[in-house]
Fold each of these.
Amino acid sequence: MQKLFILIAEDDADDRFLLQTAFEENGFTDTLHFVENGIELLEYLTGIMHKKNLDIQYPGFILLDLNMPKKDGREVLKEIKQHPELKKIPVIVFTTTKNEHEIRRCYELGANTYVVKPVSFDSLVKVIYEIRSYWFETASIPV
Amino acid sequence: MKFRFQYIYTAFILSFIILTVLSFLFYKRLMSTNRFSNEVEHTYETLYLLNKVDSYLKDAISAERGFILSRDSTLLEPYLLNQHKINPLIDSLRTLSIDNARQQVHFNNLKRIMSERLQMISSNINKAALGEEAHLDLRLLRAKVLMNEYDLMLQRIEGEARRMLLARNEQKELYQRNTPNFLYVIFVFSAITFVVSFFIINRELRKRLGFQQQLQQQVGVLNRANAELEQLTHTASHHLQEPLRKIRTFADRLANKHKESIPEETRGLLHKIENTAAHMQGLTDDMAKYSSLITAQEYPTDVDLNYVLLKVAEKMDERLALQEGKLIITNSLPVIRGIPHQLATLFEQLIDNSLKFSRKDEPPVITITREEISGKKISDTVTSLFGGTIYHKVSVADNGMGFSNEFAEKIFELFQKLDTHQLFYQSKGIGLAMVQRIMINHGGNVNATGIIGKGATFYLYFPIPPV
């Protein structure tokens, strides 16, 4: 069986760099797959769905930014959580906005967790550690 | 664009008066025609009965004469048959003209003459039957004198009846001649009123329609502008957050990663960058909060302001205690229609404001009072939003630094601060703007007065819905 990997939807190159660094800083060696917008994310997931026989797995969880071009995080979240096959994948909304309405809406759409991007780099490293260890060690996820 | 109602009132009142006059005239006309025809009927009946009385008497007299000449008792038949009908006839004649005193006298006389004459006839017939012929000439002469009197009376009665008929006729004709003139005047007048009111109302409605269209256009323009502004604030408040966060993260990363190699001065500069970015992030945060107060579509429920204030007081308790402050609520607050969390923010911001601007040398005392006030008594600067109804006036007074009244309106503007240097770190200038916005969301408004060095008072006006 293939090793679990993490799918990250993030349009901003700086943020992608910061995330990658945060993972490295924690000493995690998980494969990170980056997509840059909602359409790419859905294409990637349906691609896996069609090639499942070839033993390619779904990501362990998805880190989803809300503000992305073409198709934003809310739309993608809605589509994933309404899809009969894809809805089992845990989705962690990872965004700058801390807004009551936004948070409520994301959970209503089926988000598994809502995390606000921390400001300092140290807290980012810590948050990444917590998310990763929660979903890959504490929690059980569908295979 | 005031619609001139007095035209409608005038037109209505005029029409009503015209209608009333017409109905009154019609009624009067109908009644007089009715009375007149009754009276004519009476007159003709009187004349007819009179005629009958006369013919009965003449029958009796001819029977009397015939019997005296021939002594044939069959000639007496009409007399015997009709003589007792005469008196009841005269009685019914009298009742017919019961309202005419002169006729009453005439009928009394007639009755007297009639009974005298009938008695004469009866005695003459008796005497003739017994063959007594003494004083026949004299008796006949007396009868003739009586008959002259009778004829005179009959003429008078007839004359009176005809005279009355004529008088009534004249009266009626005068009335009938005048009514059409009057009706004509009323008709012309009402036609003019009708046409004039039609044109006035038509013109007013057209004007109104024009205003309405203008208004609709303006509403359309405003809606578009509003939607764009909403988009803009959303962009400003949400999309600005991301680069700001990144500035802070990179500054932090720089400061930490090269902790050893960065000189002290550079570290200070990095700290300044980080602080400034944090401040700006605070501003965009507030902007988002403020814009959500404008765009949020929430439905009001019944809210007990006492409970809201209690919750806010619990939340602020620590800060109050820290500054040794006191919160005094002098009387019970009302229950109003409102949005609970907005009302909580309202009191939170007001108390926060009072605590922020408290004087160093004196612990803050915040007093909250409620009274009822008529909308007309609220000062002009805020009245544009008010109707004439009654308001709950909630005053929040403090003993803090106060402000000069020339800034009484300015303090509610977004990101306005009266004193930039001193309070830079504490205040971003959004609290009071939020207070005003929340009051507007509740159909009311807020104003304030202050005395420098003594304190400030904020007045909240909540409309009381009509029962």
Note: Chain B has a mean pLDDT of 83.
Amino acid sequence: MKRAEPYLLLTPAYLLIAGFLFYPMATVFLLSLREYQLMDPLNTPFVGLDQYAAMAGDEYFWRSLWNSVVWVVVSLFFQFLLGFCLALLLNSTRFWGRGIFQAVVFAPWAVSGFLIAIIWAWLLNGEFGLVNDLLIRTGLVDQKIGFLSRGETALLSCVLANIWFGVTFFAVMLFAALQAIPPSLYEAADMDGATAWQSFWRVTAPMVKPAIVITVLLRAIWIFNWADLIWVMTGGGPAGASRTLSLYVFQKAFLGLDFGYSAALGVALTVVSLVFTAVFLRATRFYGDEAAL
Amino acid sequence: MIRTHPLRRLLQVTGLCAFFLFAVFPVYWMVVTSITPEKDLFVWPLKYFPSAPTLEHYAAAFLRTDIPRFFTNSIMVASLASACTLTVSVMGGYALARYRFRGRKVTLLMFLATQMMPVVVLIVPLFIIFRMLGLLNTLYSLMIVYTVLNIPFCTLMMQGFFAGVPSELEEAAMVDGCNRMGAILRVAVPLTRPGLIATFLFAFIGAWNELLFAVMFLNSESTFTLPVGLYNFISKYDIHWGRMMAGATLALLPALAVFAFVQRYMVRGLALGAVKG
């Protein structure tokens, strides 16, 4: 009886995860081998790999994949850079009210993708947006820019909103890692005559590397999969200029009502995530140890 | 040791102020827009402070739209889903923290792996499953999805909280004649109360903010949650920005209130491998 206890306690979690996460995930692949239109659910012929072949020739697919790369890489780069700066600043500055400051600066984390999109769509509005107002007042441009309706700026506008949201995540994780570095290491470096620059590269950097690796990986996957921000801000437009792969998966199902093709795109999305994870872990020589659990 | 040079201090202060403005300004602008009279919203150049603040957009949001109903629906879905999540996570987290059993490590790894799952890919198969179960266009489908999506993360979180409480107290209670269930409910659970609240609220924010499943599963206005309802304002009409921002402010308030409470636990929760947005 006693040996069964942990399994009994975990049963609800196992069942729910198996039924509503693993089972549907498994059916996605089977679904991708069928032609499945939502309007015609009784007629779902097996078509084998036809939809994958269609995908290979689908210009929108390749474009969305490229957009995903831009979306992930640019967002991540700035989130990391700014998040690390913020964490270093918080870690090295003592001032009154730091707790409150931290709570305020970290608050974007609580804002949903939907609200971020709405707020930034309004800020970047081409007619009465605040950003246009600021740019014109400071004389940087002399004509309003339709950020969301122009192909060159639509995706980058979404990236900007994503950066606003994601700096927090990096700051929190890296701040925690910085706080965990024992001060004695800096004292020792100081006694050996290390400059601030040296103690950053020889002490801080190696100590926070595991946190950086895991945070970058989790965020990269998460951003790659994240669809609602772009969907609400631009709808993937104009003409697919800001549509990422995850958004394409969603729109094929929601607007196109083509479940079979959406599933095939979903499989592609999953494969890209897995390959990326494997390559990333190998390149950073990071092996998930006990500490990660 | 950190020596604070005046110039360095100046740089630090400037940097911190910049971050502060960057974090706060968009939210400030949302609130300002929501209290600016309609006629002042569309003048050029913009006014950065409302000269005659008004609650007209809030009144319109409450009286002329279904926002109150969306709000109630969202509260219901989010609180029930997070209550279910909490129950399942307390049981699972307790098992993972207190027992050494075969498959424990695999379970932990599996929970971590689910955090990397592309959620957007699940929308189609879950739609088909819920259609078979006859739960489409009901709030039950969302409650189930939100519960399941939050379980792995919240279980890991609860495991951490239980691991922080010494097990001797439960053993003492069992010596005194409590059974295992009694020891969990009367000793372990009360001792981790801050953890319970934090876990509940994490699950709540996640459910409160979710849009894509909701928009896919619900199609009649009476079942809309707040994100779906607000999304519909964008797609259906010309956007009434003032009213939209009033709705957005209302949607943000509960999340921020909850955040104020959980942010202390955020570092710890996130360090456990969370990828919640």
Note: Residues 289-293 of chain A have pLDDT under 50 and may be disordered.
